[in-house]
Automatic annotation (TrEMBL):
Gene3D superfamilies: 3.30.450.40, 3.30.70.270, EAL domain. Residues 332-586 form the EAL domain. InterPro entries: Cyclic-di-GMP_PDE-like, EAL_dom, EAL_sf, GAF, GAF-like_dom_sf, GGDEF_dom, Nucleotide_cyclase, Rev_trsase/Diguanyl_cyclase. It comes from the Bacteria. Signal peptide: none annotated. It comes from Sphingomonas carotinifaciens. This is EAL domain, c-di-GMP-specific phosphodiesterase class I (Or its enzymatically inactive variant). GO terms for molecular function: cyclic-guanylate-specific phosphodiesterase activity.
Amino acid sequence: MIHHAHDYREEARLDALYQLKLLDTSPSESFDRITRMASQIFGLPVAAVSLTDWDRQWFKSRVGVDHCSIPRDKAPCAQVAESTEPLVIEDMAANPCYADSVLGRAGTRFYAGAPLITSDGYGLGALCVLGSEPRQISSTELSALVDLAAMVMVQIELQHAFGRVDPVSGLATRNQFRDDLIDMAREHPGEERLAVVVDLARDDQISRIARVMGGARVDEMIREATRSLRAALGSGRAAYHVGSAQFAFLSPAGVEQVAYMEELRSAFAAIRSSSSVRFVTNVAIGVRPFILGRMSADDVLRGAVSAAQDARSVDGSVATYSSANDTAHRRQYGLLRDFGRALEAGDQLRLAFQPRIDLATGRCVGAEALLRWRHPRLGEVSPAEFIPIIEQTSLARATTQWVLDTAMDQLAKWRMGGALTVSVNISATNLAETDLIDRIRSGLLRRGLQTGQLEIELTESAIMAQPEQALAMLHDMADAGICLAIDDFGTGHSSLAYLQRLPARVVKIDQLFIRNLTQAQGSDFVLVETMIGLAHKLGYRVVAEGIETQAAADMLVQLGCEEAQGFWFGRPMEAAAFVAWLGARRPEAA
């Protein structure tokens, strides 16, 4: 058998095994009792509870075996763990796969093993019996072996009962919720229920409480919420602690959804009003309608959690599961997961370059580098969809570095003597990277580029997210000779006093203000005129984005705008197309 060391499923299986902390532990009578029973039922001298580690079969319990482990290679218990199916070898000497295995060479002729399967479906190993003579097995014997293996798993779970009860709240955990739902579906198939998740606070609120008041205060908040929840549900209803600050319960059978949600609003309004942390948290409640037996417990719970997240943005803080919202959230998560792979793939990401035109001469003086992603399954994914997701994660650094490196590589290939400038967008997250400037300078130096050939764009909103940190970073960048541009000018909330302090050379007026620039003296004309005048008074060069007509370009010349970019001049183009576009322009304008 081939052991796939890097297989994802195998890594998850091993993780499930290691979390149980069973390997290399002392023998226990609770396991030995079952192993002895297996040996007696089959009338065989050898029986064992075998756990499949990455390179060995380790025996938690054994009868008639002196050693406590054997190599995993060609061990039949490994096949049982990997397949999660029973395995019977009536004559090992006649089996080409196992005849020369460790067991086969030791004289084992008969083997029967039943899998030890976790509730998540991972095979930990096997309960096996072995004999020194060939043997057949009846269906009754095999059923008994499967039942005994299930008893072993129950014992394993009992030994880890702390995983079924949360030590802080004293409530049953997510694992118990899963098992209880399976039991309910068996007893009441087809019954309609509502799953409710109560989310006490956002993660950042929990972190803030822990940071200011300590973890003990968070624990007390959880216990307080538990008492309130138990009082609201009554003694006959089960509640579950399913996340760090998330609780779940099921509605009674036969409730009407709209009326029940009103009850939830009233009940939790009272709980909120008496909470000791009501001013620094906000409770959100999600409701997931479902039919017992038609959906897995994990999907039920995930849907209710998704609804609770939606509830944070609606009045009353109670929301019903929305398949559309859930699909959108899952797509966002999928894009985030896949983008990390795209950074490493080498063939999914690329840059497009949109020309920047000097309005006075018509010459192309630069280009904005725009990230593009061709997903292997979804096709082209809009930057407006994936960039806001990435900017909130640790991928922001790697993404910006990929764009910087690719843009500088392209500049080095073009070798246009510094006449062409390429602009690269960075995010607010990048401003926290203390080595960002050094990375940019060393990248330019390695490629023999001048600092003036690269322009860094940062939106006004990103600057105002961390204004003092941004100001310090941007001054350091300007001191290093790197040109700075304020992107989407006019859409943020910066004050004039702050704008005066920014060491930027360029402002880019957002296309929102330019797109409807159709007639002089109109409201858009007056607004753009004012913005250009303000930018000039602050010492900035002005670039207008979103130019789609000659009339708009003419008006911007009239208003004194220096540069422009937009579809009227050229759409974003990949490097080869951009070079061809440059070459096709009139010599005097190229």
